[in-house]
Amino acid sequence: MEDTKYLFDDTITPEGMISVSQIQTYLSCKKKWEYGYIEEITPRVERSFLMIGKLCHKGMQTAMQALWYLSGSGVTMDELRETAIASMETDYNQYMREVPLLDEEIPDMEQMWEDAKSVFTQALEEFEPLKYEVVSVVKDGAKVPALELHFCVPCTGTRGLHGFIDAILKEKETGHIWCVDYKFRKTLAPDEDEAFNIQNSVYSYACMKMGIPITGTMTWQHVNTPAAEPQVLKDGKMSRSKIKTTWSAYRKACIRAGIDPADYEEEMVSKLSEIEWFRATREYRNVETIVTIWNTCVAPVSMAIAESRKPGANNYRSLYPWNCKMCQFQSLCQAELRGYDANAIRLREYTKRSHAR
């Protein structure tokens, strides 16, 4: 068996390489890029929605790994879910051990963990993993699943562009092969945004270089908040309001309250079915499009990043409300702009990155 070309060599480190995340950060704000990739700092405590996304990613990765390893033994959804949640819990516990949380921060993190389990359990069921086969690739002479597939392709001005493809999956019904990216978001992006998705364009280029014949890319988005709990009214009946929940969650709430869910099923199943929890956006890019995006978007930014690493480079701020409100360096940036004690904020709110993915 021949090894898949351009798979990442685990004997080397990514220093001097770039990633799609780095490109996206650089394009959004050079100062934000400098904080993350020159100073190499990151918030000491991650935002809960980011943690939920990371844990759910871990769950999806583990579930699909179990599907690959156990595919010939009649694996069940229960097995996939239990294996995945155990892996998520390991990562959560490690984070709680390693991050010096304040006492008042712990309850929020514990609630985040409960939310992550709820979001993942719902997402896994909606993703329907059993309708896919995990594609195999060859690394170091052995077959491995194309999950969290670490690649590194040549890129001008750098030691290469590296990244992690969430999954490459084959639909059993159609035979189509998809390069899949999981996203857990508060709001689902519209399908038309996919045409501007530089990450999936780069991943398509990487698959082409690695010789993996994908049909296209699939961005699989899921809401990153758990299903809401319906309210029991003063008269002992369950509220029929259209809240952001699922029939499964509504039904369980009825049973816990001693209410017969059959009395609500006809109305609420129809009402709650209108709520969109996930979206699978598929995009087909021909070779010419993939290469053009690489040559006209990726390569020039790669060269610009190389220039911005030089001493004295003007890594200016891009101050726009839509750009700054969700920035993890907002407090540090504002402190520097207003003449506050920025070093104190660096020490209190930030720590060194463990890696520059």
What topology emerges from the helices and strands here?
Elements: H1 20-28, H2 30-37, E1 41-43, H3 48-69, H4 77-98, H5 106-127, E2 132-134, E3 136-139, E4 142-145, E5 147-153, E6 161-171, E7 177-185, H6 198-210, E8 216-223, H7 247-256, H8 262-272, E9 278-283, H9 287-308, H10 321-324, H11 330-338, H12 342-349, E10 350-352
Parallel strand pairs: 7-8
Antiparallel strand pairs: 1-10, 2-6, 3-4, 5-6, 6-7, 8-9
Q: Could you explain how this protein is built, in words?
A:
- Helices cover 45% and strands 16% of the residues.
- The chain is α+β, with helices and mostly antiparallel strands and 357 residues long.
- The strands form 3 sheets. Strands 2, 5, 6, 7, 8 and 9 form a 6-stranded mixed sheet that branches.
- Helix 3 packs across helix 5 and helix 4 runs antiparallel to helix 5.
- The longest helix is centred in the first third of the chain and has 22 residues.
- It is globular, with a radius of gyration of 23 Å.
- The two termini are 30 Å apart.
- The mean pLDDT is 93.
Q: What percent strand?
A: 15-25%
- Tell me the number of strands: 10
The total of helices stands at 12
Q: Which word captures the global form?
A: globular
Order of helices and strands: HHEHHHEEEEEEHEHHEHHHHE
Could you tell me the mean pLDDT?
A: 93
Largest sheet: 6 strands, mixed
Quick overview:
By secondary structure, the protein is an alpha+beta fold. It has helices at 20-28, 30-37, 48-69, 77-98, 106-127, 198-210, 247-256, 262-272, 287-308, 321-324, 330-338, 342-349; strands at residues 41-43, 132-134, 136-139, 142-145, 147-153, 161-171, 177-185, 216-223, 278-283, 350-352.
